[in-house]
């Protein structure tokens, strides 16, 4: 499955979301009251249309949530691909660009990213589809860390678990971050990039192996 | 405010939860259908009591969620206190025991820990109370990292952000972990302890000063 060519002139730029009135209002409603706390009637009222008009566009409430989740993860994957591509052949740059894309997304798009917690309310089939798409991000991260380890710039024993921890850490940002709060997306990104480099045991230049310390930088 | 003396013979042991029939069923129902997706009627049916009988024990559905959240975070705080206390005067041991307590809790008590995502559905007053209790965990973590930095065993620039990242990473475990899955709580704990030590820039023994490290005392 060949990914579509990245459609971002600049993967660091987050234009206002323009999902259309139904999805925009659904994002807001699910964020405020949760998926189960939002009825199709509530949604129609927010959008200012009738319930049948809503059903004309979306099969049901779950289809609206699935569209939101799917749009968000595909957008993030394309950004991540663009970010990694921009890193050229530098394994550290590729990795930090990847982390940057994820954290910028968790901050600029916090409400969409937080929607991930509603995933458990969708059908097993839809959950599997979403998981399969999202898996691509995990595979990209595994590749990037693997590559850094092979080239001697990262030192990490347990790549799979470190990647999961890293992605979990970035995802949890959406739970507390608010645009307009004390930190800007760029500030959060700068800090998490440093932490991500620690997690993968970044060393500025390859060292001779050393048995003593589990973490060694410089 | 003096914390109560830890009531755990062994903070690493997680007995089956015995919250009583209403809270046990509420935990299950909120996990399956979310807070808003669970009606008081659903809950009464699961427990096998009438709706008025349920209201006899709990003011409303929110009070049930708040009790669950509060019980979980207080139990975790007591475990963390016991864990840190057991570390004696060794700053690394105190820190790793703390991380161990958190990760054991995120795994053994994954459904309770995951309930945290329902927090946005409780009233501002209840949310503030919960946040104030939970803040104690963050303050403990800040103290532990601070102490390690002062004693020259940890090296980290941005203690506040690293602690938040660390706690976010541990919390996100509850989103994927299942008892009986491929990893045991002890395995996850061992791996996350290593990752946590990386985040705080653990070094096995104080090194001679070097211009490159961001924080250095001793």
UniProtKB/TrEMBL annotation, chains A, B:
Residues of the HTH tetR-type domain: 16-76
Keyword DNA-binding attached: yes
DNA-binding region as annotated in the record: 39-58
Keywords per UniProt: DNA-binding
Protein name (database record): Transcriptional regulator, TetR family
UniProt cross-references to InterPro entries, sorted A to Z: Homeodomain-like_sf, HTH-type_TetR-like_transc_reg, HTH_TetR, KstR2_TetR_C, Tet_transcr_reg_TetR-rel_C_sf
Keyword Nuclease: no
Species this chain originates from: Rhodococcus aetherivorans
